[in-house]
């Protein structure tokens, strides 16, 4: 098949796959796997090339943390945290939602957003069961909070890790330059979500009183196992913070913790592996291949180059175009290959245009790629993880339902970023 046909065919399969994901007639994992198989059968990618496009660091990180969380769940600590949080909020659902959002955002900045939602979502389900409310408002708020919080630091979101690695920007560089606007965006976003969901989160005083009667300490089922889990959980947290200095990928850190926990607890692997969200894992694998085909045939690069050429190399126009292009693209295409494509293009533009200080463009790319992931339910890894866990609890988050709420909030966040970048960097 000639190269131009590969270009068109890969684009068609991507759009078709995306259309079926939006339609939700079949499970997203089945659709993504089917798209990947068509790419292979049509020989747009060979099997070896396709496997190369699967980000096994993401896959390994997910599996490792799912195993750790699955074992930890057996201790009852999530129920303990749920009741404690609800009692601190006096049983008020809106306060609980805000409280969990703050925890999610802060943890996503200090760890990474995937690990954070794996820890927070089980707590959320436990709380919601006691309040007899729909978990959807809480879950959507946590997805958005995780992506906002993850944008604030070098280790919070994969695009930031990639940018830092390529440019030498440090943890403190990200912290000082991105955290101020992230705090503003988080406060405004949570205020809007609180206003939107306020009427849906009303419960009888009797339910609030029942919450206050619970004894959170009674939820701990196995103290010895809990101590082991907390000790092992500290290992990946420490590793995520220092993985750059240790020259270890995050997947290696997470899988090391999972293996150690299985060794010291002697739990049956079959029981533990049930905790892994396998549909989510296969969704990512399939999607990596479909998007990898776009990257391989040059679709992503062609779009990025055409967009950058429009600006003529002017700093302000280029920076804002990078911001908005990254945001819109990352809402619909995985932000990891997009970021990987943009990094060398921005470097080339600096060389050809004689731009000595590219730092503002890196902040544009970071803010756009990370915050853009809030736009759709498949825009970021954390979104897909939460959607998969919600499916397991028979409360699916629909593509359109999520996008109606989250996409406008994402656009608002990019408007704030535009003003911030213009005032302080351009």
> Looking at the structure, what is the overall shape?
globular
Mean pLDDT: 86
What's the Cα radius of gyration? 22 Å
Distance between the termini: 46 Å
Protein structure class:
mainly alpha
Percentage of β-strand residues = under 5%
Low-confidence stretches: none
Helical residues, percent: over 70%
Number of helical elements: 21
Order of helices and strands: HHHHHHHHHHHHHHHHHHHHH
Number of domains: 2
Number-wise, the strands total 0
Biggest β-sheet: count, sense, barrel?
Answer: none
Structure description:
This protein has helices at 3-23, 28-41, 47-53, 56-73, 77-88, 93-110, 113-131, 136-150, 158-167, 171-197, 205-213, 223-246, 250-265, 269-273, 278-297, 299-310, 315-332, 335-353, 359-372, 381-392, 399-424. It has 426 residues and is mostly helical. The mean pLDDT is 86. Helix 8 (136-150) packs antiparallel against helix 20. The chain has two domains: 3-52 and 280-372, no CATH class; 56-278, no CATH class. It is built from 21 helices and no strands.
